[in-house]
Design brief:
Multidrug-efflux Transporter Regulator, Chain: A, Domain 2; three-stranded antiparallel beta sheet
Length: 235
């Protein structure tokens, strides 16, 4: 079958503007352009368009999709676990946002700013209580109440900031060293290795809980850093 650009856009529920964008990026090129300049597509093109849409639904960027299409999707499986982690992290973030909004709505006696801070603190303490042995939970509370904990917190923030260019360069070796630096800060409070692992992961995720303008790393960068951290734990 041969389909015009109007036919294809209607069948696939996309706009002609989207088809033009795909053509410009060389993701989906019309099988035929006649002498009048009209674009025509085949059943194979329709299947390809559906694949593009499905990959977008799975969280792949157009750049990633083009790379996969150019290599007959040979690289796709290597990226699936990364995308799954990314989606899981987003789901966790949405659940956290939902709980926080409910708490803020119920805290009418506080300003929005104070309500956000209180809800975040409560979420962190609840997470620690649910995931740590009781003795470790109390050690964490003790750590948080020590005067030097604020300096340590600021030091960890600076270390996380320094990971951003390393993530961009995909340098797992140096990123591993940065994660070890964070781990050593926690270990001086006599916490077990398992507790330190949970705290490092919690700290990295908490970067995503504040306003977008204050986030050090974006979701994708945090997921990448967590992957390296988890690999270190398996070494």
């Amino acid at each position: 079958m041969r389909y015009s650009s109007s036919d294809l856009s209607n069948m696939a529920n996309v706009t002609k503007k989207t088809l033009r964008h795909y053509e410009k990026m060389e993701i989906l090129i019309p099988s035929l352009i006649d002498s009048n300049g009209y674009w025509y597509y085949t059943d194979e093109d329709l299947d390809k368009l559906q694949l593009i849409k499905n990959l977008q639904t799975m969280g792949f960027s157009l750049k990633e999709i083009k790379t996969n299409l150019d290599t007959d999707c040979q690289l796709l499986r290597e990226l699936l676990s990364e995308k799954l982690n990314y989606i899981n992290e987003q789901m966790l973030q949405l659940e956290l946002a939902k709980r926080m909004i409910k708490k803020i709505n119920s805290s009418t006696e506080l300003s929005v700013y104070d309500a956000i801070k209180v809800s975040l603190d409560e979420e962190h303490l609840l997470w620690y209580k649910e995931n740590l042995p009781e003795d470790q939970y109390h050690l964490v509370l003790d750590m948080m109440n020590k005067p030097e904990s604020l300096d340590d917190h600021n030091t960890i923030i600076e270390i996380i900031k320094s990971t951003k260019p390393l993530i961009k360069k995909k340098n797992p070796l140096l990123l591993g060293e940065k994660i070890q630096e964070i781990s050593l800060i926690f270990k001086k409070y006599h916490l077990t290795d398992n507790t330190v692992e949970l705290l490092v992961e919690s700290f990295l995720k908490s970067n995503l809980e504040g306003p977008l303008s204050l986030r050090i790393l974006n979701v994708k960068e945090v997921v990448y850093l967590l992957e390296i951290f988890r690999k270190l734990g398996n070494c």
